[in-house]
């Protein structure tokens, strides 16, 4: 996922912000030009002749934010506004062939092949705006999506730990950020936008630690800043009644672990608890079994062969990562399905270009997946 700024920024060991060069502006200009001259439908038709694959879109939150300057949580996980999402779905329905995981399983198991330009919509984490905002639009347009949820947060109602880290940095009255493990001791900027840059870059570095170290850093900041994690209306998970209603209306529900932890960074016992516990809770609370898992964060160091093996052994029929790409048919890797992240900065021309020619208008994943900062 991306920060609020136009270039990828990192925190150096000294706590300073570093901004490498970005090619994004060129890609956006090309996308808008192709859209303006009507080239994208032609390019889509040509691509169809030599590439048969499944596009899987990845969303997190669909949310209208009147004033981003006062929003107290991570903007990088806001994938689209209400208007953007409806516009994107309308384009998908017109230009592509929306499918479900049920369709994918049928094709993988020797049934009817997926249609050309097949596309599948997914959501990670389980924010309640998925129910309040995204679900009604999907239902109105007669479309379905897969919602990957972290079951422990459904039960607790607590914000996700990565969201809370960003929230603390945005809202703390502390004047300095001190993270000994990272060699960071720096003054916190006063502005919310500048703090978001610091928070996003810190999150990127924290995810490189194992789970124990990650939680220790976040917990220590909660204690030192007296900001214990608690339910918050701006970052709240869905509940079981909402998920049951969505499933009854044709939405698919999948696993995203219990506590949204990077699975490859857990001990084997904790890994089993995250995967088995999440599926068991979903199967107990919902009418249909959970058959697909999305690896939390989902980048190159968020899952490995052991994670994929356990996902299969526990009864999941497929799994999604958060690595940018499409999935060749009919031989797509069931337990390493790539996706195309959707981000709130995308206008409809960029979105159309991304879905039309992912190879050109996509981007290379970093170690955490996504474009820049994997907050899945």
Brief account:
This protein has 376 residues and is an alpha/beta fold. It has 14 helices and 15 strands.
Supply the key terms.
376 residues; TIM Barrel; two-stranded antiparallel sheet; 14 helices; globular; disordered N terminus; disordered C terminus
Structural account:
The chain is of the alpha/beta class. Mean pLDDT is 90; it is low at 1-21 and 372-376. It has helices at residues 24-36, 39-50, 82-95, 101-108, 129-140, 151-156, 161-171, 192-206, 211-224, 240-248, 268-285, 305-313, 348-356, 358-361; strands at residues 10-11, 17-18, 53-59, 61-62, 78-80, 97-98, 118-123, 146-149, 176-179, 184-187, 252-255, 292-294, 318-324, 327-328, 337-341. The protein has a domain at 25-159 and 237-361: TIM Barrel, CATH 3.20.20.370. The strands form 4 sheets. Strands 3, 6, 7, 8, 11, 12, 13, 14 and 15 form a 9-stranded mixed β-sheet that branches. It is globular, with a radius of gyration of 20 Å.
What topology does this entry show?
Elements: E1 10-11, E2 17-18, H1 24-36, H2 39-50, E3 53-59, E4 61-62, E5 78-80, H3 82-95, E6 97-98, H4 101-108, E7 118-123, H5 129-140, E8 146-149, H6 151-156, H7 161-171, E9 176-179, E10 184-187, H8 192-206, H9 211-224, H10 240-248, E11 252-255, H11 268-285, E12 292-294, H12 305-313, E13 318-324, E14 327-328, E15 337-341, H13 348-356, H14 358-361
Helix pairs in contact: 1-13, 3-5, 7-8, 7-9
């Amino acid at each position: 996922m991306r920060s609020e700024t136009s270039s990828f920024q990192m925190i150096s060991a000294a706590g300073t912000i570093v901004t490498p060069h970005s090619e994004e502006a060129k890609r956006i200009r090309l996308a808008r030009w192709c859209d303006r001259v009507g080239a994208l439908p032609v390019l889509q038709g040509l691509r169809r002749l030599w590439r048969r694959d499944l596009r899987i879109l990845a969303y997190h939150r669909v949310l209208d934010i009147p004033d981003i300057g006062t929003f107290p949580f991570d903007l990088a996980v806001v994938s689209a506004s209400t208007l953007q999402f409806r516009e994107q779905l309308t384009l998908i329905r017109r230009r592509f062939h929306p499918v479900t995981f049920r369709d994918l399983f049928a094709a993988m198991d020797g049934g009817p092949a997926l249609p050309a330009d097949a596309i599948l919509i997914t959501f990670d984490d389980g924010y309640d705006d998925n129910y309040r905002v995204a679900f009604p639009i999907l239902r109105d347009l007669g479309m379905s999506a897969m919602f990957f949820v972290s079951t422990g947060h459904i039960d607790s109602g607590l914000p996700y730990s990565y969201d809370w880290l960003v929230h603390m940095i945005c809202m703390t009255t502390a004047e300095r950020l001190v993270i000994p493990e990272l060699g960071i001791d720096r003054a916190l900027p006063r502005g919310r936008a500048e703090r978001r840059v610091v928070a996003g870059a810190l999150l990127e570095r924290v995810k490189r630690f194992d789970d124990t170290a990650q939680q220790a850093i976040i917990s220590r900041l909660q204690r030192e800043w007296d900001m214990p994690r608690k339910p918050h209306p701006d970052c709240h998970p869905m509940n079981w009644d909402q998920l049951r209603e969505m499933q009854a209306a044709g939405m698919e529900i999948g696993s995203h672990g219990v506590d949204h932890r990077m699975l490859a960074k857990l001990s084997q016992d904790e890994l089993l608890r995250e995967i088995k516990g999440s599926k068991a809770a979903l199967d107990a609370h919902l009418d249909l079994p959970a058959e697909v898992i999305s690896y939390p964060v989902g980048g190159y160091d968020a899952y490995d062969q052991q994670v994929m093996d356990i996902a299969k052994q526990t009864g999941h029929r497929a799994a999604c990562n958060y690595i940018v790409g499409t999935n060749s048919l009919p031989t797509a890797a069931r337990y390493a399905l790539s996706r195309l992240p959707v981000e709130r900065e995308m206008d409809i021309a960029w979105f159309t270009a991304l879905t039309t020619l992912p190879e050109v208008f996509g981007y290379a994943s970093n170690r955490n997946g996504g474009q820049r900062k994997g907050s899945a």
